[in-house]
Specification:
single chain; about 550 residues; Rossmann fold; 3 domains; seven-stranded mixed beta sheet; five-stranded parallel beta sheet
C-alpha cells in the first residue's frame, strides 16, 4: 500500500507527505481522515482528533470574531488562504456578507496602504522593471499551469487611494478571491500579477519597509515595452487566458484597453465592470421611478475611467432602446475637477470630448445640478462629501424619486453616505453606493441601501468568457450582464430600498450572468467551443465548490 501511494505521489509531483500539509490546495488540516493519514504518512504530524470541514469553519469564525479591527481580520483571512484554500473559500461563501467588506472594499484599501508592513507570504507574480527580458521565464516557473484568469495592476490608482506601487498587489489578490467565491472559478486557474514600474508616492519611497522599486514611475516607451513583454509572456505561457486590467491610471487604462482589446481576451474592470454594475442599478432604479432610460438626464461627478466607462455603456443601452449615439450622449454630462465639461473648454482629454456639449460653463457641482436639472447623479470622483446636503436637496426638488449613486471606493471616498442621501431627500432618494452602508431608519421606515459593487459583475463575466473560450471581450457582454443583474432584483429588494439583489444570492447571480455572456459570445461568433445543448447546466458543472478531495 505504501509503495503504491508513494508512486502516486511521485506521478503527481508530490514527493513528501508534508506537501499535503504545506500546499494550500491540498491541505485538509485536521480533516484528514484516519485512512488518509495512514496512506499519506501523516500520523504524528496532526492532532489525533479528526474533524469535519464544518467543525473547522466554526473554529475559523470563532477566531475571526475575536479580532478587534478589520485589518486584523484581513490578515487572519489571508493567512488562512495561505494554508488551506478549501477552508478559506468555504468560510467566505458561507459568511459572504461579513467577509466581503474584509477581503474586498473597504478593508482591502487599508490593507494595500499597509501592505509592506503586514506582508507575510508572497502571492502571485511581481514583474519588476529590473526583470525586463525575463517575464516569460518567470511565468514559466509558476507551478499551476492551467491559468485561465489573470488580474493585473501597476498600482497607480488603487481604488480612490492613488499610487500605491507594488503594494497594490492586494487588489488582484482580492479580485481573484471573489472570482472563486462568487463566480466559482477554480483557485488554481487564477493568477494575481503586479507590474512594478516604480511609484510617485513620496511617502512610500521614504518608507523603510516599502518592498517595491524605489524610483519614480517609468513612463512612455519604456513603460509600453514592459506591458508588451507582459502580454507576450502570458500568450506564450497561458494562451487564451483572460487578462483583467485593474486600477491603472486614467491615461494608461484607456490606452491599454484600446490597444489590446482586439488582440487578446481582455477587459478593464474599472471601465467596463463598473459601467455594467452602474447600468444595472439604473435599470433597477427605473422600476421604482417608472421612467425610461432614454428619458434620463445623468450628471457624472468624475470624468475618469469609471465615469466615462459608465456613460459609454449607458449610451450603448440607450441606442439599443432607439436613440442615435449622438442623442444618447446628449443625455450624459460630466463634471471634472475644473467644473462642467463643455465644448468651449480647452485641452480636454480625448475620453471627455464625446461628452463636451454646448452649454454655459459652471465651476460648481451644485450650480450644474440647478442648471441641467438631472434625473440622476452618479459619483465616480473619489472625492468624499461632494454630494452635499444642498446638492441632494436640489435633486429632491427636481425629482419625485431622485437617483443618487455614490460609487467611489472605499467608504472614506464616497460622495455621500446613505444617511445623508435619505435625510436630505426626505427618504425619496433611490440610493446605492460602491462600499457598504448600514441600514438607515427615517420616520419609522428602514432603508437597506444596495451596494453597486463590481463583484456582482466581473465574476459572472469571467465565468462566461472562460466557459465558452471567448476570443475577445466586447461591450455587448457588459450590457447583457447589466440586464441579467437587474432582472434578478426582486420587488422585495426594491421595497427595502435596494436596487441590487442580496449578496447571499451572488453565486446564482454570477451563473445567470455567465450564461448571458456566453450566449453573447456564441451569437457574435467569439466562442471557441460548440454550443452545449443546456448552457446553464454546462456552466454550472464548471463552478468550483470548496469541498475536500478524498485521498484514500
Amino acid at each position: 500500500m505504501t509503495d503504491k501511494v508513494t508512486s502516486g505521489r511521485r506521478a503527481s509531483g508530490i514527493s513528501n507527505c508534508m506537501d499535503y500539509l504545506h500546499d494550500p490546495l491540498l491541505n485538509k488540516g485536521t480533516a484528514f481522515t484516519e485512512s488518509e493519514r495512514e496512506v499519506l504518512g501523516l500520523h504524528g504530524f496532526l492532532p489525533p482528533g479528526v474533524q469535519t470541514l464544518e467543525d473547522q469553519v466554526l473554529r475559523v469564525m470563532e477566531n475571526f470574531n475575536r479580532k478587534t479591527s478589520d485589518l486584523e481580520k484581513y490578515i487572519f483571512l489571508m493567512a488562512l488562504q495561505d494554508r488551506n484554500q478549501t477552508l478559506f473559500y468555504r468560510v467566505i461563501m458561507d459568511h459572504l456578507e461579513a467577509m466581503m467588506p474584509i477581503i474586498y472594499t473597504p478593508t482591502v484599501g487599508l490593507a494595500c496602504q499597509e501592505y509592506s508592513h503586514i506582508f507575510r507570504r508572497p502571492k502571485g507574480v511581481f514583474f519588476a522593471c529590473k526583470n525586463k527580458g525575463r517575464f516569460s521565464e518567470i511565468l514559466g516557473k509558476w507551478p499551476k499551469r492551467d491559468v485561465r484568469i489573470i488580474v493585473v495592476t501597476d498600482g497607480e490608482r488603487i481604488l480612490g487611494l492613488g499610487d500605491l506601487g507594488a503594494a497594490g498587489m492586494g487588489i488582484p489578490i482580492g479580485k481573484l478571491s471573489l472570482y472563486t467565491a462568487c463566480g466559482g472559478i477554480h483557485p488554481s486557474w487564477c493568477l494575481p500579477v503586479t507590474i512594478d514600474v516604480g511609484t510617485n508616492n513620496v511617502d512610500l519611497l521614504h518608507d523603510p519597509l516599502y518592498f517595491g522599486m524605489r524610483h519614480p514611475r517609468i513612463q512612455g516607451e519604456a513603460y509600453d515595452e514592459l506591458m508588451e513583454e507582459f502580454i507576450d509572456a502570458v500568450q506564450e505561457n497561458f494562451p487564451g487566458a483572460l487578462i483583467q486590467f485593474e486600477d491603472f491610471g486614467n491615461t494608461n487604462a484607456f490606452r491599454l484597453l484600446n490597444k489590446y482589446r482586439d488582440r487578446i481576451c481582455t477587459f478593464n474592470d474599472d471601465i467596463q465592470g463598473t459601467a455594467s454594475v452602474a447600468l444595472a442599478g439604473l435599470f433597477s432604479a427605473l422600476r421604482i421611478t417608472g421612467k425610461k432610460l432614454i428619458d434620463q438626464k445623468i450628471v457624472f461627478l468624475g470624468a475618469g475611467e469609471a465615469g466615462t466607462g459608465i456613460a459609454d455603456l449607458v449610451v450603448t443601452a440607450m441606442t439599443d432602446e432607439g436613440l442615435s449615439p449622438a442623442e444618447a450622449r446628449e443625455r450624459c454630462w460630466f463634471v471634472d475637477s475644473k467644473g462642467l465639461v463643455v465644448r468651449s473648454r480647452e485641452k480636454l482629454a480625448s475620453h471627455k470630448l464625446p461628452y463636451a456639449h454646448d452649454h454655459d460653463y459652471h465651476p460648481y457641482f451644485l450650480d450644474v445640478v440647478k442648471a441641467l436639472k438631472p434625473t440622476a447623479i452618479i459619483g465616480a470622483s473619489s472625492q468624499p462629501g461632494r454630494f452635499t446636503g444642498p446638492v441632494l436637496a436640489a435633486m429632491a426638488e427636481l425629482n419625485e424619486r431622485p437617483i443618487v449613486l455614490a460609487l467611489s471606493n472605499p467608504t472614506s471616498c464616497s460622495e455621500c453616505t446613505a444617511k445623508e442621501a435619505y435625510v436630505w431627500t426626505n427618504g425619496r432618494a433611490v440610493f446605492a453606493s460602491g462600499s457598504p452602508f448600514e441600514p438607515v431608519t427615517l420616520e419609522g421606515k428602514t432603508f437597506e441601501p444596495g451596494q453597486g459593487n463590481n463583484a456582482y459583475i466581473f465574476p459572472g463575466v469571467g465565468l462566461g468568457i472562460i466557459s465558452c473560450g471567448a476570443r475577445h471581450v466586447i461591450n455587448e457582454m457588459f450590457l447583457a450582464a447589466a440586464q441579467s443583474l437587474a432582472s434578478q432584483v426582486s420587488e422585495a429588494d426594491l421595497h427595502r430600498g435596494s436596487i441590487y439583489p442580496p449578496l447571499k444570492q451572488i453565486r446564482q447571480v454570477s451563473l445567470n450572468i455567465a450564461v448571458a455572456v456566453a450566449e453573447m459570445s456564441f451569437e457574435k461568433g467569439l466562442a471557441t467551443i460548440p454550443r452545449p445543448g443546456d448552457l446553464t447546466q454546462f456552466i454550472r458543472t464548471k463552478m468550483y465548490e470548496p469541498v475536500y478531495p478524498v485521498y484514500a
